[in-house]
Specification:
By secondary structure, the protein is α+β, with helices and mostly antiparallel strands. It has 13 helices and 38 strands. The strands form 13 sheets. An 8-stranded parallel beta sheet has the order 13-12-11-8-7-2-1-14. Strands 17-18-19-24-21-22 form a 6-stranded antiparallel beta sheet, covered by helices on one side. Helix 11 packs parallel to helix 13. The longest helix is centred in the middle third of the chain and has 19 residues, at 244-262. It is elongated, with a radius of gyration of 32 Å. The chain starts with 53 loop residues before the first strand and ends with a strand.
Length: 700
Amino acid sequence: MRRTAPRPVPRTLLALALAPACLGTLALGPATPPAAAAPTAVTVENGQALTPPMGWNSWNTLGTAVTQEQVVQTIDFMVARGLVAAGYNTVTIDDGWSLGHRDGQSADFAKTPEGAMQLYDANRNPVSGTDGTGTDVTSGHLVPDPARFPSRTVAGRTVNGIEYLSWYAHGKGMKFGVYATTTYTTCQGHPGSLGHESTDAADFVAWGVDYVKYDDCPYGPQIVGPDGHNYYTQGIGRELTRSLYARAQDFRRALDTASAAQNRPRVTLSVSAQPVHTGIPHLLAADDPARTDPVVVAAGTPAREAPGYAPTGKWCGQVANLCRIGGDRGPDLDGVLYNGQLRTALDYPGNVRPGSWNDMDMMFAGWLYPYGVYGTTDSCLCHKPMTDDESRSEMSILAMMAAPLISGADLRTAADSRHTDQGVTWTTGIGDSALAIYKNTDVIAVDQDRLGKPATLVGAPPNSPTAPIVLKRQLADGDTAVLLVNQDPSGRQNITTTLTDLGLTGPGYTAKDLWSGATGTFTNTVGSWVAPHGVALYRLKPLPVTGPAAVVGDGRYHGISAGGTGGQALEVRGTCSAPDGSTTDINTWWDWHTSEQWKFTPNPDGTVRITDNCDTPTQVHGTLTGGNGAGSAAWVLNRWDPNSPHQKWRVLQNSATGALTITNVATGLALDAPQAAPTSSVVLGAPNPAAPGQAWTLLN
């Protein structure tokens, strides 16, 4: 819910505002049983949003001044700069796109002093509507503002400015969204869709709209109930007799009906309103579906609250594809940390599944204040842009919680996003570093994981706003994502956890840092030094289950080939005529070449001696010997020293693939063929189960 728009350039200084906190509480209490038996819950299964939606919304940067030209510029930029290819495929226009009246009227509708639509009785006398009565006398269709969204000609047909943008987005391989509300008026005072659901839904579908952001802005006076309790602002008329749950369900059903009637794809519905209201129990209609929905009933209805006003995280998936679970966020990272929306998201994991997502509001990564230059013409901390570390943190938290990735930044070129004010010219266009953050495919893959299971908190909740957080998320392929969050804005933190604390029982895990790309292995502790307001995000993959290799002690000579080499075999470089102390390489496998045959003999201490099958004046069953560090050669020596760890190896076999891992005792480094070309050197490398050249398979 956004009641206050960003200012138009350059006159006013309105900031983004939250709805007043006095409008109600969100406390949950004991459930009140319904009067009748509850039917089975009906969840949204419209085939939409099977992964969290990704895209862009106009509000944070363009507010109510958004124009058709700006949206076209955004679409072109997103295509050209790889955002669409990365998955950000939906552009949505927020509040303010329509005229202030429908086409059934010639002037904007009358409003009460509180900004609510004026309602009337049957004799067209004005009424307050605070008792749930009153009629909206407007009629007709929503009309795009022709000054900002002019009609265009497409394929010989004149279309309005919204349908044109839908056509333009589709032509670029994108989807298109618009804004509407469950109430009589939008948050910016334009016509809402309450009472016009069928008309508006049919128009949106006909215009080719793919996504609707559905807000909730019930303006009106404070209401004191018959019990003497002040319920504060709850709306007027049907806003009081029909719950937010029911109003959202009405519109989603209208969209589905329109799609079926027009033989068009169904539309994704996003409820952009965490209930800040409590409802007024005695005014809620007896047949309101929230009264009997099992999910709503299970959520509980505290005293002086009405069913259907429980947090959206409880019931969103019953009526919509995604719902806001908190208030409006600003560009400060605190809004998405534990004392912000993260804690709320952690409270409602049951609402997260394919087709139903908890929305943690638009991303501020890369956002710049449109109406001044922070640090030059503007000094409000509320307009300070996120650092790159904070931007990575915001995106990581959203990805871990399987939240939508919808940018509010200015996704246009520097030329298209130029501003001038107070003698200063600047651009709000997203910078290259922030753009790279958005396009991180590894982090996007976590957010879009098809299992659709959100992260959980590891350990106890943080005991202060700066205490670190550890989150873990199970992924569809069996991997585990682990996020270390430094909530301290000013100091680095060494954040650690253990495999046990993460509930991981394997002997070890390979780890990829999804922001730096670095890889490694964790066998006990997962941890890192993390920058202020920064994160470390790892994807952990269990090490393969291994056991003693069957070739050890079988008395036979074997050819072995490194993965990724096309079946080439480990050999003594130069074959058996090579001098003592020769290095090793890979080469074409010939089963009669004794220089490519190796025997694995157990040592009394549990290690393994590996010898070649050469028996010449220069090569006499040479022993495979490791060097002193990563990248050093593996060579063969005729001399065998039972006390030298460089001549001893540990050989384990993957129980699933049969591949051997051969590790030098002295260095802990693995026998590795990092290059695939014939005669490439075999060396010692840092153990990496993902490295194909460290997986050796038997050739005979």
